[in-house]
Amino acid sequence: MQSATNRHVTSGTAATLRIGSPADLEVLAAIDLDASVLFERAGLHFDSSSQHEVAMAERRRWLECLTAGTVLIAVDPGGADVGFAAVGTRDREPYLDQLSVRVSSMRRRIGTQLLYAAMKVATDRGGQSLWLTTYNHLSWNRPYYERHGFVLVSPGECGDELRTEVSFERRFLPRPEERVVMRKHLAHLLT
User: Is 69 among the domain residues?
Assistant: First the structure.
């Protein structure tokens, strides 16, 4: 990552990425709420009120990531914040806590740009793998990550913190049986 004085990480044709700060917490919440429209269209209805346990947990985790400097925010050519990737930690390994892109900015490779920047954050922090949890049955979830080298991981391969995360998600999210864990080995990015 570049120094805090240079807040732009990378530029691309789709977006410029900047490192988020704790002041960006509401930006992340707004982007994620906008992106959640896709889940609604797929029949997954979330309680998105800021007082719901899942929303409160997300905000705590995102604030931790913002404080650690591990949130990348995509800014479109017009200067609007249109997506973000938050990289946290589970079981001492990097964990993709969230990847969200506003619906109006989807299908412009911004999500992929954010995903690969998150992998770079993971390797910069010494991670051997990047872990995530996602839905198994949605085309923009498991199959998307598989196209980028992630593989399904059995519960036996997960550490205690990741098992706790999946248990929490399965308790509160719709279609709990469809929540899965995935991992991408990052060894090729370390060389």
Answer: yes
Provide mean pLDDT across the span 96-125: 93
Question: How far is the C-alpha of 126 from the C-alpha of 64, rounded, in Å?
Answer: 18
CATH number at residue 176: 3.40.630.30
Residue 29 dihedral angles phi and psi, to the nearest 5°: -60, -40
Length of the chain (residues) = 191
In angstroms, the CA 78 to CA 87 distance is: 26
How many domains does the chain divide into? 1
* Spatial separation of the C-alpha atoms in residues 59 and 55, rounded to whole Å: 6
What's the whole-model pTM score? Answer: 0.85
Q: Is residue 104 part of a domain?
A: yes
**Domain residues for 90?**
8-190
Match 């990550």 to its residue by tokens: 145
Contact 110, 144 (CB under 8 A): no
